[in-house]
Here is the input.
Amino acid sequence: MFQILKDPHFDFMGKRNLLLTVSFVLVLAAVAVLFVNGLNLGIEFTGGTELQVKYADTPDMTEIRSQLGAAGLGTPLVTTIGDPAGNEVYIRMASRGSADESEDPTIVVLAALRGVSPESRGGMDDLNIEDESMMAALLRQAPSLTDSQADDLAAVVLEARRDGAIFKTHQDLASIPGMTPEVISYLSTNSTIGPLALRSQSYIGPAVGQELIDKAIIAIIGSLIGMLVYIWFRFRLQWGFAAVAALAHDTLLTLGLFSIFNQEMSLPVVAAFLTLVGYSVNDTVVVFDRIRENLGSYRGKDLAETVNLSINQTLGRTVITSGLTWIVVLSLFLFGGTALRSFSFVLTIGVLVGTYSSIFVASPIVVIWQGYLDRRKDRVTGAQQPSGDRKAKKVRRSKTG
Amino acid sequence: MSKNPLAWKFILIAVVIGVAFLFSFPPKERINLGLDLKGGAHYLMQVQTETAIKFEMDRVQNSLGQRFKTDGIGYQAILPAGEAALEIRGTSPDQRPEIRTTLEQFVGGWEQESLGEGTWRIRMPSTYRSQVELEAVDTTLATIRKRIDSLGVSDPIIQKSGIDGKRILVQLPGVEDPTRVKDLLKNPAMLEWKEVTYPPGADPSNWGPPAGQDAVIALFGGVLPSDTELFAQRIDQPDGTVVEVWWPLKRVSVVAGRDLRDARRSQDEWGDPAVSFELTQEAGKRFEVATRENLGRRMAIVLGDANNKEVLSAPTIQGVIRDVGIIQGGGFTIQTADDLSIKLRSGAIPTEVTILEERTVGPSLGRDSIRSGLAAGSAGFLGVMLFMLLYYRMSGVNAVIALALNILFVFGALGALPFLFSAAGIRATLTLPGIAGLILVVGMAVDSNVLIFERIREELKLGKTVRSAVDQGFGKAFTTILDCNITTVIAAVFLSVYGTGPVRGFAVTLIIGLIASMFTAVFVSRQLFELVLLRIRPDQSLSI
Here is the structure.
């Protein structure tokens, strides 16, 4: 049998104060970074417009910026996105306030980038724009095609564009099944091939942005409370607080790194943070479960010792599952495409931090807290039975269940 | 139960696998893809019901004045007083009973009070108000539905949304040009034919207005006739500039929006795109009379909504038109002609609509997302599979089978959910975050297997027999697995309640995946172990 760790006996709890201090300092650093650097909020939260366009050739960013400026769009964020060979450009504009919401920036931006007024478009159909019915109407006028042939061909042409995203020249059409040289020559004289194609576009009004921020905050706070209540119910209230402290640690550290790497905060990223919350508690619960079990079987042993034992016993599992989950989120980060990059960034960091915190944050807090309660109990001595003992009995009972 | 419970358990597993296959194959037909994968346009719109209230108040203000006149009640003015009230000023104290009766009949249910000195105030009650708002939303929804239907989009979603039900959600799979649809969604359209009021001494067949509003008014000697209003026409010049001219037109239209029975894109005699329309029978009679009277004169086609009307063209009437006509020379392209006929057919949107949220994903981007999702999923699954096989040997095979079934069950559930709950409006769609959720499930579901396997190893190390190690391993790991999955599900439930669209897809996939993992990693995996235990001799060790 393969084993990553053969009977580990690390003394985690012996260094609990040091570990907690290190974690605390790290969290403080993360909070400081957040204050200084801030978060790069996506348009879902700020309101605004974003577009992703694909160019046929390598895009000239300076040219794009000056085109947008000339169209009265100010200085929006313009960056390349994804694989550089993909020639894709990402443009983000803040909301211009609700006053001129009727003015659709998407149309203005596209017109500015294409270099013609939206009404005239040079009078010719752009093969990188037209939808299937327009394409069919265009092809129906080709001399060599019957109407039904034109409709069929339009569908095939559109399908090819859906696969390849953009036509670069009219000669690109030659490889499309059913395309004849006559049709290509007809299209060459009766249509243009624009320099770019729209990949995606979103507009979020300012009202919706605020709503989504509220919902995200409610969801995160709600799930934190949910976790606290669940652990209270299954274990003890103070363990719940320890788990939530570990959660806060994970979330803040990951947020700090998120801010340092200037990743964009979006709805899927909020989802990733909530998943991180679930995952981190998940890891903590495995250790807690073992602590509870061992409290039953090794009674009279020191709590710190029991916790140490439990962590060591579950260490193999912890390392393996964290490793496996990490493999999965890492492949998501590497191969999942740009749309999921920020999402998987959170989880790639979060899985590591979450595993660390269940051992180095949640468990030490449980030990320290219990130690404090015990010392207080010693001082009160006998006069009244503190609640800690009652709870301990309850824990023992529920262990068998 | 038969003598062989294990056989029954495997039959159960086989049945579940069969059902999952049934609902998920072929995936192209069974699995509903979200707009972010399929490509398409998504709109969330707010119906500005205040505008509907304002229209209704205007209507009541106008028609109440007319009603007073027919009932012989004198008054000086009817004025708006705030948002939902009117003040009637300058009535005679002698007519108090008559006023009361007329108000009772005309706006029964409205609060009415006499402020003294011949002034009355009436106020729209809140029940009436909410009814007007509801109707505005419903009519808008119906109009939008008609317009979308005529676009020929397959499987559109058009529904009310939001807590107050004043929002409309529109999802149009496969729509690639966002600007065209948006124009159809937002822009109201009412078509009217109006007679031209010629200035003194003008040649009716040839006259066109000069540029500038003042120049037109000057032609009438500084004052427009009371039945006449100015309407703008924007004329594109060959050099690309736009000139605005103002037509003096009669206030009362010959034909208005609701007189239209049908409108279609057609061609004029030169083969250029045009819009032909058909009037109702009754309007056709009116139009016949009007065109006969106006032979050789111009009539203007006016298009717009209540606030903003524009002259489309002002052709000279060449012959008597009854109920079929054509709008041409408007510089139409095929698309603009199509869109105008759609708007005319569907009728006007009764109130202002603002777009709160708009997303369009091109189909090419959606396909790229599916490709990269598949790549990431396969890489993740392969990595997990390799590790499990190397580390746990034969038991690793067990885990991999459980994992593969888990994925199958998620797809089965995604296929089955819309089928089972279609009445409840539950649509389980696979979105891009959903794919991420599915990949994540692979990592999280295998956790259950690892917990169990590690536990079995521990028990074996304590010197227990294979049989009891497996029993204990599954038994002791179960509570931990349950706790783990419940905590993750708690987070996912919050996400699905407060998340929107694609993010909800993520939460749903995650929840389904974790529930399925309880079945695969605990139940199925256990039965596979039982199968191994049947064949294992007491002196043999377990490959784990």
Chain B has a mean pLDDT of 83. The radius of gyration of chain B is 36 Å. Chain B touches chain A through 87 residues (CB under 8 Å). The longest strand of chain B covers residues 352-361.
